[in-house]
């Protein structure tokens, strides 16, 4: 089905075709959405919503919502309100982002990224790069009680190695120390902390920062958004952090079981939050797949040969992770990421089509643009008292 018209009309046509939908349109804040059982939606800036309607309720709603969120995120500039017009010549970083997003769509991938052989910088992705969370709570930690239980201690050497490995592999910050914001602790039922091995660390606005022993658990992200109604920003924590939290929280707070917590959710809240929770899980899964692929590509022996005229030409296809990596311009590597077995011929054909434009845009970037976060250690400190 050919598409023509304005960029917005073309995008809506692509959304309808890609999701097999009956209709796709933008709803203003004061417009009433169609029945929820036949539609999926993605929140946009200014209270607007991208709403997709189906003839019948889709059986694979989660997969289609994931694709909808990816399209909306990738082409966010097209979906901005008319009063926020784009410059006639968009910055190279924005153009690179949109070109990578188009590549992802053509190849039926989940993400694409550009890295180089000299630094840990990710020069561009099809999805949104995650920034390191702010971990400075507004209240002092329960240090005295921790000392009384004997739980205040540093990470064991073996834990520190594992925490740093996960941080590097998944592009996340890690934590040290024992600072926890009581406001965050009160928001998360203890049963969720125990089930998913997480520690509530800080709350800032509508974002909850949590420490995760296993950041690969995407179900934890879904349930936390569903229960708290907040955005969730994970960092990596060690087992000792869980021990500290368990001892400090022993016999206090919410003592319900996981089943009791989930069954007690207000039906209206659950319905309103389910879409957001599913999108958060899908976005976190995308981030993990992309970062794992980048981690594996950086470990390839061929990466060390790029500055000396070598090349990276690698294809990996697995049940849960696959990628195609192609080097260009001497030191850069394009990584196209999949979370399931994929059509290698389609992927390689899409890369051949997109690579000249991607190379031109990467070479047009300023030396430090973009400057995404690098995995590291974040020390969480209490607020200083004013004298």
Write the layout of secondary structure elements.
Blueprint: H1 7-19, E1 23-27, E2 39-43, E3 49-53, H2 61-74, H3 76-79, H4 92-107, E4 111-116, E5 122-125, H5 143-149, H6 157-170, E6 174-176, H7 182-187, H8 190-196, E7 198-204, E8 207-212, H9 218-228, E9 231-236, H10 239-248, H11 258-263, H12 267-298, E10 313-317, E11 322-328, E12 332-338, H13 344-363, E13 377-379
Parallel strand pairs: 6-13, 8-9
Antiparallel strand pairs: 1-3, 2-3, 4-5, 4-12, 7-8, 10-11, 11-12
In short:
The protein has 387 residues and is of the alpha+beta class. It has 13 helices and 13 strands.
Task: Tell me what you see in this structure.
Helices cover 41% and strands 18% of the residues. By secondary structure, the chain is α+β, with helices and mostly antiparallel strands. The protein folds into three domains: 7-86, no CATH class; 93-129 and 289-363, 2-Layer Sandwich (Beta-Lactamase); 143-275, 2-Layer Sandwich (GMP Synthetase, Chain A, domain 3). It has helices at 7-19, 61-74, 76-79, 92-107, 143-149, 157-170, 182-187, 190-196, 218-228, 239-248, 258-263, 267-298, 344-363; strands spanning 23-27, 39-43, 49-53, 111-116, 122-125, 174-176, 198-204, 207-212, 231-236, 313-317, 322-328, 332-338, 377-379. The chain has a five-stranded antiparallel beta sheet with strand order 5-4-12-11-10, with helices on both faces. A three-stranded antiparallel beta sheet has the order 1-3-2. The chain has a three-stranded mixed beta sheet with strand order 7-8-9. A hairpin with a 5-residue loop joins β2 and β3. The chain is globular.
